[in-house]
Design brief:
Chain lengths: 339, 339, 339, 339
């Protein structure tokens, strides 16, 4: 009977893990059997809230339990690789926090291992599961935006300056996981990162420019030093353009019937005609992204869905961040043949 | 008696010239004697509106009239150099539309000539005369912003795609003339331009990154392909940060008491303490920028004021635009020793 | 030949008249023959700008000229009645500034006279000619809003305190002319006005509540004492609701697919189901309201259109303002059988 | 030892009670001994979360325990009176949810009883404890606003239509508790309520107009039928005006140096001079209102603070709501000598 629905274990209950635990525990379509963390006090606290879950400091309990189908890893990044590897080797499906691994090489190892083990490896790019991104994807699939031209994303605020990483690793990952929902990272031909450090050693204001072989152009601007909080993402297409403003409580998406058409009555090879029509603010499904993601992981385990953010995307993301570091170091654009 | 107030001539009455004519004609402290344009019909029209002004198609009338003290040039850019040169040679003070010249070499010739002739050469960087920029300059002079750290400016809209120039030449000039009011272009050490073209041959989305030897960092983002009109300029300092939003009808400037201080109670060389205080929206003088600029030119002629935007700034601006073209061509940052 | 297009005369060239003159003079479909005002200097100034128009201080020139088809009256309110009466008696069509007359009795006289003379009497309720109001009317005609439920309008700012009138006469006229485009004033059953005076003798903050026999409810809030400028008009219907925000530069109208439906699956006589769908911001025709109105007056003269705002509406508006004064005086709602 | 800090009991753990429980339980300066509710399942749930609290269905346990100093009542309104009366009789201090009682007569009984028992009776007008209202009160005390002139509050949204009460009882209580923080309800001379019902029996759109003997004027607009959520409260004074926008995540208060002064250079008894200066957005203390209120109740019990919202205010609030019902019924303003 226990096997009618998948069994889940969650490792890492610090900052983000409790949110994952809460969402998986709330699902009818799975059973959370284990919670795991090195901190014993923390485990005691959760034990009270989730009396039916087994809390342990020893991950081996999970690897050794054949009942466990899926493992969710939300530890610090440095531990992702070894835990995910162990989980896959033990024949478990894996959902791992972002960034998937500390290096893209480790990412490659995990992707290959998952393939070999015929298990799913998913990455928690939460934005990919938001109603906003789902809605924009619907528009793309319905050809409502036409050919995609550019992506421009601004994510700035007065933010906590990280001592061990730069603002691109901290913030641009969110924009990249949005971007990745719309275009294929495999098409990237050039990466350029630029920025400035004013208080610490790593850049606190950052810009990431990506060129694609399709002509698509992406720019991401992130900052820890802005007096205002802005989260503006524009996706421009030939037929319509979308503004995603994540600071809006409900009207997050605006679809503009705006753009430039060729005036066919003119002999000129390109005689622009400017179009400025209605704006639509679509109603969005109120499902929480993390709940949708938890359901999706369970559905992948059950064979009902295919991973939206498979391990390969997680690896590509890490690779882009590595290349942005390389670009910053060389102060030059990096041309790439493949990620 | 005619010489108690300066006498002005205006050349070029197409798009922007009529605004200059209107403002100078409205001043009590000068006398507009000539209006000049190649288009005769246009002149007839203005003659009715300004019966006391002499309208002519021949600029020589102006050079040869010893009564004329100052010449305002608002023709297409290609004609700026020859007209400004002739005016300076005829011993007139000059206010010329931006960009000052088509090349920085021509700019250098004008700057040197003005010096030799001991005449003022001013450039119409209109933003430098706005109440918003004046107010920010007051804050800087009062040390209210602390040490300046960065400038970040976004000027995007669905704009007319120019066939003969790129979006940086078209739009970033405005941001540069704002930036130039706060920091010294002579401190620039590196220029990098990036962007993409989707409809024509020249970039339609552009980014300009400037590094300064003081550690100051500037980024300007311009676009003709945005569905939304944004004109956001942030100037970040160690003591306060300013947001200048030119789309606001009256509340254009917001001063944020926000930033990062060192927590002196901590032994660490840098232990950040985040400050988030009041926001002030200062009332702004309602004087039109162009009126202020007209008055300023007249006051410079009368020896009462010193040029806010002298020819050398105009030359530097053109040089930056040239270097941005070079950077785009090389797809690499351009290091510079001097502009 | 002169009679192929209507001939127009404009009386009153103070504050608003010049706008009317500019718009009528710009039309190909009419000919402006006269401009009339008591102020001779003013006339001289306009003569220069409009050399082909005859400017006069004597309105008799207009009454006596059989070529004149339509007269536009933009004098102070106190003069409207006598001028409009004279114009109608002289067989001219009339467009008169709002409020149409100082009293509703005078309004009645004009309406009857126009009928007798078989001439059009139109009132310049400018808002009725805006693209925003036109768009909302299209939605109403297309049954997109369902049954209309309520109108709620806020028009507040730091405004000039009028010495001889209250804020309802000064500002609520605009909201009433918007309201009147959507519902029939003849259905009003009760008028209640309320407010307060803090500096002068007449109320400076005002509220006007109107009940209709259809169940429709209207509230208008006007103020000269607000620190913020708000121009929010909501029109609520059973199928959709519209927000008209006149301070927005282009996105003036928002159509909300929001409301309350009856849940038919429930036995209860009314079990509410809340609907919260998309928001649409329709693109608006950029035609200036006054230009549209000028064209409309000419088209009415030519027999091509029927008056959108006939004299009877102007009379009703004045009557509502009179009744609001009566309500203020009695500090009680005024029940009415007919306006 | 148990008596070094006050002991608290909380009755009613349905909708709002859990928030009170959480805040009181989190305080170091009090000890929560009892939680009480009729629903046993609910109590079991809370027992797990708060193992040190005694949960009971019998309020007598609380009345009979001499250790209990203060009782917090968050049951449905109909039960407030009997519970508060019992608590006061048992010698406990009381904090009761709003509205304090179902009728103002009951309110009077409680106020008198508290006085007799020498116990504090406080009402949970939560808005009175927000940082926004505290900040505005600071401005008033610092004479920054000058003489207060008017209060204008809009609280509209698509809201749940209540079957047993009208929108004024449901929503205007919030605006009244804000208003009451600034002016004295004892000065009210006239109450007028107006509105309309479109779906149910009770008004769904409501307006409440209050006149004060000081000349102060208050208007509150509430609605369940608005397509947009607006929470705008303006407090106008002779020296400055404040806008409180509760939908803003952090910039909730704007202080406008705007208003009308007398131009002393003019002989006229009132010659207005319009002032439009800076706008200040003060930083606000981030303390949660309910936490501040919990602390305040404990401090009142300990004799360290005086009630900010004593029972008499709660009674006045209920009386105003009763009078608004009377005004609606009579469709006329109600003049009052005392509340």
């Amino acid at each position: 009977m226990s096997k009618t629905i998948p069994t889940i274990a969650i490792i890492g209950l610090g900052y983000w893990g409790p949110n994952l635990l809460r969402n998986f525990a709330g699902l009818d379509e799975c059973h959370v059997k284990y919670g795991c963390d090195k901190n014993k006090e923390r485990l005691l606290r959760f034990q009270k809230q989730y009396p039916s879950v087994t809390f342990t400091t020893n991950a081996d309990d999970i690897w050794n339990d054949p009942e466990v189908d899926g493992v969710v890893i939300a530890t610090p990044t440095s531990a992702h690789f070894e835990l995910a590897k162990a989980a896959l080797k033990a024949g478990k499906h894996v959902l791992v926090e972002k960034p998937m691994t500390a290096t893209s090489k480790e990412g490659k190892v995990l992707v290959d291992l998952a393939k070999k083990q015929k298990k799913h490896l998913l990455v928690d790019h939460t934005f990919a599961y938001t109603s906003s991104v789902f809605k924009i994807n619907d528009l793309i699939k319905d050809h409502a935006l036409g050919k995609l031209l550019y992506f421009d994303s601004t994510r700035i605020n007065l933010g906590i300056i990280q001592k061990d990483t730069n603002v691109i690793w901290d913030l641009a990952v969110h924009d990249l996981s949005i971007l990745n929902s719309f275009v294929d990272f495999a098409d990237i031909t050039e990466i350029f990162a630029h920025g400035s450090a004013h208080y610490g050693k790593h850049i606190e204001i950052g810009h990431l420019h990506l060129k694609f072989k399709t002509g698509f152009y992406a720019h991401i601007h992130v900052s820890w030093l802005s007096p205002v909080k802005i989260r503006h993402t524009i996706l421009g297409g030939t037929k319509a353009m979308v503004l995603f403003d994540d600071t809006e409580p409900s009207e997050k998406i605006r679809v503009y019937d705006k753009g430039i058409d060729h005036d066919d009555t003119k002999p000129d090879p390109f005689f622009p005609k400017y179009r400025s029509g209605d704006v639509l603010i679509p109603a969005l499904d109120s499902t929480e992204a993390l709940l949708r993601e938890a359901r999706h992981f369970v559905a992948c385990i059950s064979g009902k869905e295919k991973p939206i953010v498979p391990g390969e995307l997680g690896r590509q993301m890490v690779r882009i961040l590595e290349l942005s570091d390389e670009s910053l170091k060389k102060n030059a654009p990096i041309k790439i043949k493949s990620l």
